[in-house]
Design a protein that fits this description.
44% of the residues lie in helices and 13% in strands. Helix 2 crosses helix 7 and helix 5 packs across helix 8. The longest helix has 18 residues.
C-alpha cells in the first residue's frame, strides 16, 4: 500500500501581524521562475492604472515597471518574514507541466501561514491547494482579463482578502502543519504494524 504525505510547514514560524497599510502584491520566486512573474507584468501595468499598489519581488531576477513600484529583494528566510506581512495578495502564476503537477507548493503554504490570499493559475496543483473563492482565487492562465479582474477585486476588497486568508490559514493548520503531518505519520506507522 502506498500513502501520499503532504510536506509540512512550521506554522508558527510564518505567523505575523498583517500590515494593512499600502496595497502590495508579493512574489516569492527564484531566477528560474522569473519568467512566470514577468508574464504578468503587462496585466499588472494595466491594473496599476486603476489601483495603486507595489510589488515585492523576493528571490527572482530584478524587474522594472512603469506604473507601479517593484521592490526587488534577494531570497532569504528573513526577507520572507520581513516583507510578507506587508503583502495584500500573492500572485502564483504556474505552468501546468509535469514538474509543477508534483510539487509541494511551499510558497502557498508560507502565504497561508500568514493569511495572505493567493491569486493562482488554475492548474492541477493549485486546484489541490486552493478552493476557488473560498481559500484563494484561481484564474485562467490563458485569460489575462480574468487575472486582471480577480486581482482588482482582491486588492479593492479587504474583507474578501481577510476571509480568503483566514480559510487558507485554517487549511494549512488542519492538513499541512507539522502537527497535522506528524499525527498522519504516527497513524500510518500504527496501521502498518
Amino acid at each position: 500500500k502506498c500513502e501520499v504525505i503532504d510536506s509540512a510547514i512550521r506554522v508558527d514560524e510564518y505567523r505575523f501581524t498583517k500590515d494593512e497599510g499600502e496595497l502590495a502584491l508579493g512574489w516569492i520566486g527564484s531566477p528560474a521562475t522569473t519568467h512566470l512573474l514577468k508574464g504578468l507584468l503587462s496585466e499588472l501595468e494595466k491594473l496599476a492604472t486603476e489601483v495603486s499598489f507595489k510589488l515585492y519581488n523576493i528571490g527572482s531576477d530584478a524587474l522594472t515597471a512603469q506604473n507601479f513600484k517593484i521592490e526587488n529583494l534577494p531570497w532569504t528566510a528573513e526577507n520572507e518574514k520581513k516583507y510578507l506581512p506587508k503583502v495584500s495578495v500573492a500572485p502564483m502564476p504556474m505552468d501546468n507541466d509535469a514538474f509543477n503537477q508534483h510539487r509541494c507548493s511551499r510558497k502557498w503554504a508560507v502565504y497561508g501561514c500568514g493569511e495572505v490570499p493567493t491569486l493562482a493559475t488554475d492548474t492541477e496543483l493549485n486546484r489541490y491547494c486552493i478552493e476557488d473563492g473560498v481559500s484563494g482565487s484561481l484564474y485562467a492562465m490563458s485569460d489575462p482579463a480574468d487575472f486582471l479582474e480577480k486581482a482588482k477585486t482582491l486588492l479593492l476588497n479587504q474583507d474578501l482578502r481577510q476571509a480568503l486568508g483566514r480559510q487558507i490559514y485554517l487549511k494549512i493548520v488542519k492538513a499541512h502543519s507539522t502537527d497535522a503531518i506528524g499525527w498522519q505519520l504516527v497513524s500510518l506507522v500504527r496501521n502498518a504494524s
